[in-house]
Amino acid sequence: MKEFLNNIITQAGQIAMDYRNQASELKVNRKSDKDLVSEADEAVEAFLISEIQKAYPDHAIFAEETGQHEGNEHRWIIDPIDGTTSFVHQQLYFSVSIAYEKNGVLECAAVNAPALDELFEAQKGCGATLNNKPIRVSNRDKLIDSVLATGFACVRSDLTHNNMPYFEKILPNIRGIRRYGSAAIDLCYVACGRMEGFWELNLKPYDISAGWLILEEAGGKLTDYDNGQANIPNETVGTNGSIHDDLINYLTTIKSHQVK
């Protein structure tokens, strides 16, 4: 399964790069005023679905652009291009994200950031890798020494309960903030020790499933803002584990003043 996943996600990354290299001709549509979908998203997703259905015709698939494809207890979760805005604007931080689960348990995952030439992979119980080399989370255990990432899917969706109050309160209490525009990359960067944590509201399973397994296999932790799993992925916080409780304390305190 891991070899199959490696093969299709590598090919998918090349398809994305082929479209990126023809940016002036790229066709882009709007899902909403602030949310884009390109022909590259559609082409990558169509390729992945076709390959999975040829190899595993009974498997279910959940993909960002085409939704649920019914099947058995095996399911593939696909984000063809996580970070479409970055992709359309010729930036580097976009990824192809694929997770495989059986009976609701994540078993195998990969995140390919082709413009960065980085492929993150994980298999349950076997650790996580970056370009075939093992990775681990950082050991920093203080928020003030930590670099975090976040995103604003909630703002694009015009939600009243959005990330701005969290951003305002957390930023002064950490070393720095990063905004890459791909939740999959954010979680992988925590997994390989480049950052200590990530939080965001209003994500979807295809945004975080692959990054979730990669982070946990690298020694990290992912929960909702209440330090459980009931409200994942609508509330997502992933860390190196060492700063998790401190970050949760900020998130729950801020949330208590935002949600009545």
Description:
The chain has helices at 2-20, 39-55, 84-88, 153-156, 164-170, 183-191, 205-217, 244-258, and strands at 28-30, 36-38, 60-63, 67-69, 74-82, 95-102, 105-113, 118-123, 128-130, 133-134, 147-150, 176-178, 197-201, 221-223, 235-239. The protein has two domains: 2-134, 2-Layer Sandwich (Fructose-1,6-Bisphosphatase, Chain A, domain 1), CATH 3.30.540.10; 143-258, D-Maltodextrin-Binding Protein, domain 2 (3-Layer(aba) Sandwich), CATH 3.40.190. Helix 6 packs parallel to helix 7 (205-217). The longest helix is centred in the first third of the chain and has 19 residues, at 2-20. Helices cover 34% and strands 27% of the residues. The strands form three sheets. Strands 4-3-5-6-7-8-9-10 form an eight-stranded mixed sheet, sandwiched between helices. It contains eight helices and 15 strands. The mean pLDDT is 93. It is of the alpha+beta class.
Q: What descriptors fit this protein?
A:
globular; five-stranded mixed sheet; 15 strands; D-Maltodextrin-Binding Protein, domain 2; Fructose-1,6-Bisphosphatase, Chain A, domain 1; alpha+beta; 260 residues; eight-stranded mixed sheet; single chain; 2 domains
